[in-house]
Amino acid sequence: xxxxxxxxxxxxxxxxxxxxxxxxxxxxxxxxxxxxxxxxxxxxxxxxxxxxxxxxxxxxxxxxxxxxxxxxxxxxxxxxxxxxxxxxxxxxxxxxxxxxxxxxxxxxxxxxxxxxxxxxxxxxxxxxxxxxxxxxxxxxxxxxxxxxxxxxxxxxxxxxxxxxxxxxxxxxxxxxxxxxxxxxxxxxxxxxxxxxxxxxxxxxxxxxxxxxxxxxxxxxxxxxxxxxxxxxxxxxxxxxxxxxxxxxxxxxxxxxxxxxxxxxxxxxxxxxxxxxxxxxxxxxxxxxxxxxxxxxxxxxxxxxxxxxxxxxxxxxxxxxxxxxxxxxxxxxxxxxxxxxxxxxxxxxxxxxxxxxxxxxxxxxxxxxxxxxxxxxxxxxxxxxxxxxxxxxxxxxxxxxxxxxxxxxxxxxxxxxxxxxxxxxxxxxxxxxxxxxxxxxxxxxxxxxxxxxxxxxxxxxxxxxxxxxxxxxxxxxxxxxxxxxxxxxxxxxxxxxxxxxxxxxxxxxxxxxxxxxxxxxxxxxxxxxxxxxxxxxxxxxxxxxxxxxxxxxxxxxxxxxxxxxxxxxxxxxxxxxxxxxxxxxxxxxxxxxxxxxxxxxxxxxxxxxxxxxxxxxxxxxxxx
Length: 623
What we know:
Number of strands: 20
Structural class: alpha/beta
CATH superfamily of the largest domain: P-loop containing nucleotide triphosphate hydrolases
Number of domains: 4
Number of helices: 23
CATH topology of the largest domain: Rossmann fold
Radius of gyration: 34 Å
Largest sheet: 6 strands, mixed
CATH class of the largest domain: Alpha Beta
Shape: elongated
């Protein structure tokens, strides 16, 4: 591909349309850098003003005026000959290189420039989106200004430069008729009054798009010198660097390549690790916990660590460890050509309540990030209404509260390295679930403010109770699987229910497809596992008594047996049910007993007996 082919599309359109258009609305990715062929050869990323001027200069334009509402108007480039010519031809009175202008004065300058015959010139109105507060509700001076601009667009004529200046115009390009154009630089075309360009063949709207892969690849060559260890690199290695840099910055402006390269320069990142520099730019963090050397050692013992907290769920432990190992080795999404932006891992945890689904999310957070409180949790039952999506993802532009962003996007920007838990996913509104398509596939989400949150360093955990209950023919809610059913039956019924929910009830099989083979069904708590959970919870109680009162708590064997029988009798509510029973039948009466007991000088206390009254109130006898 030639250098000219890589020039921005909007520049090529501008050059083609200058003979027939008098005004241009340039909108979109206007604050980016653009590949431009400079005099010294080759193409270099430069800001929009320089890119525009380089193009105009090749066509014989002598200067560019740039106006912004804060400072006023200034000639570009800021060279003595250019400044003097602009002052002479347009009667500018510059102070420190600029001249403040009101809207009325700007309209007059536009008229003089479009009628100028002594030299080709153009006017760029920068920050045009801020000229008026409300394009549809303008005051009288604002309306007169844009009416004058519309009239100029209609009545302007292309010029052929006269006199001695014609030789310079021909030397720079040719002296064929072209307009002295007014160019409006906008965030969005609708920031100007809609009637300015409506049915006006003299006004052209140019969209400034994000750079494509070839453009990013060509621009990458300009930044390799900022990376470490690039001296003496083979041509093949440099080409691979450019390809990797372009692939990692998909959907980003060229300015992002420049910023990523500057970060790499400050951090001493090698050109072979260009993806790390891009990730630093995306998530706003200089250190990546996934790259820490100690993490590999931690993951090696992850199975035992997880089983110590999530008991009796071997399938879930195995799947979680697989995801962690895959994430540490950088192989997430390796089956796809460009899977580097997907989340580090995805787990869909389904099954009965109280079996350890939320505890697994906390355990993963503790294992990877060293603090279980670092996980981000969203109760999806709070987002059952469609309008609740504005809370999660941010209100659309123009709506109340859009400037605050979304709870999800804000949280991930604040903690880009985290476990994100979406609890009871099936309770969210289906339109909200659509947003997870973008997260699971592209690893990013843009809120109402236009800010992008990147999920490429997160582990996403979804939980669900689908399949445990179903509706009979009468519409009554009945249990679909029971405690004591073989795990194979529980897994089959739950997975079938999940498939039916996404494919037929929601008609969104694509969500299920992106979750893939990461559905893990939790089994009911079995009696042997329940005893282990009970023992662990009781140990936690004894540890808390020591922390708070420096007392060793002992239980008589018969007390332990009685308490265990009460707590594991009904396993319908899983581990939470065991904890609830332990709280009501032991922690509460223990608290009453300790409150009344004389603890002065004691370093241990023994629970000698449990007594239950006819009203089912339990009391504890201490000694």
